[in-house]
Amino acid sequence: MGSRSLLVLTLLVLLCVEPGFGQRGDVDLGEWMRAQEKLTQDLQENQRRVETHQQDLEALEARLNATVDQLTGQKADMDQLKEENEDLQTRLNASEMEIDELKQSGGKAAPHIAFSASLSNSGEIYSGPCTDKSLIFKRVFSNTGDAYDHNTGIFTAPVGGSYFFSFSTYGYNTHVMGAMLMKNGLLQISTHESPTADGSDSSSNAAVLRLAAGDRVHVELWDNGRVFDNLNGHTTFCGFLLFPM
């Protein structure tokens, strides 16, 4: 009897207590589900944030690449400007040297040097054959700078530079007709005509010579040569400074 009463009492206790256990289990599971749902929402939110940050990083990378390209272009422009600046500096230095040279020379302009003359200053004249073959052009049309000496027929360069010279000769068929332009005693150019049956001949020649200050230029006959001149100016000699050097 006692055993049966104990069993009944135990069943009654179980019937009274078990519903409470089930209710607490239901409450704990609901809270767990809600916690899981909140965790899922938080994970989704974090994922959206990560995606947003990823997009921001990609945009930043694109801007950085564009900046690199821009800097590369600017560097190329800087290099070109540097080369142009160096070229300008070189030209500026050259200009400064020229200015210094002009200052050292007193800043004076190029001297005016020019002359023109013919062989005869009166009547008719036959020159040659002769031992001293130098032709002295007596009739001076101009002699700017006084570099030509009408007493010797010699032009003496007062300054170094490039000079233009021209001469013409006229003669008859009895002798070799022609002459030579001489620089410091050395032949430069010439005119020449052997005796012919046509009665008379004329010719001319010209050259640009580079002279140093003090160089001498004159015209002289060929061996056994002869030229003729009168006031018509058939046989002439002229020259002028092109530019100093």
Automatic annotation (TrEMBL):
Superkingdom classification of source: Eukaryota
InterPro entries, alphabetized: C1q_dom, Cerebellin_Synaptic_Org, Tumour_necrosis_fac-like_dom
Signal peptide feature range: 1-22
Keyword Signal: yes
SUPFAM superfamilies in alphabetical order: TNF-like (SSF49842)
Coiled coil: 36-105
GO cellular component term of the entry, any: extracellular region
One family name in Pfam for this protein: C1q
Keywords: Coiled coil, Secreted, Signal
Compartmental location: Secreted
Protein name, UniProt field: C1q domain-containing protein
Organism: Pleuronectes platessa
